[in-house]
Model the fold of this input.
Amino acid sequence: MASQLRVYVPPHPIIRHWITIAREKHTPVPLFRTAMSELGKWLTYEAMREFVPVQEVNIETPLGSTSGHLIDASIPLALVPILRAGLAMLEGSQTLLPTASVYHLGLVRNEETLEANCYLNRLPERFEPQTRIFIVEPMMATGGSIMTTLKLLMERGADPAFIRIINALCAPPALQLINQQFPSVQIYSACIDEVVNEKGWIVPGLGDAGDRSFGT
Done:
């Protein structure tokens, strides 16, 4: 039986709070940027669960000996923010993954064809085996940018089973494309809207995450 894409929309009150702040059109730029950073942090927290390996260690407390668990430093961790908007969520993700390598990927969408073009690629020549990869992509509407990203990662040896997408808002067209070609990838999103209009915008959505993050 073919595997099926798994999309998680955590019912956490903090995630619900910050996605609502981000969607409100009157939210000022500094608060919008805070909302995106917070969503990056809490969605990354959810995505790390049973994904980032830990190792058992023996430690000494002030009163005795016990065992505990630490994140396994032998397993590489990678954050791949999609510019520009991904930078707004990256700070939150990095607070939970401070040792992760960051590989920036710059994509711009052609507003006529809705296709994504890559203008910056800082991916490694080859990902090490078992690398856990977190793609930071705030908006997934038509799926052009995320599909380009996933294909570039595959070309560099990434394993789809070890990829998690950190996403503020997505829509069915993008999810369907991912499911067709990369069903083992898992997505952690704050919200799913059902409509993408003829211009490729999610409705009701939250507007342009990059413009709203940087006041442009």
The chain has one domain: 6-214. The chain is about 30% helix and 30% strand. The longest strand covers residues 54-61.
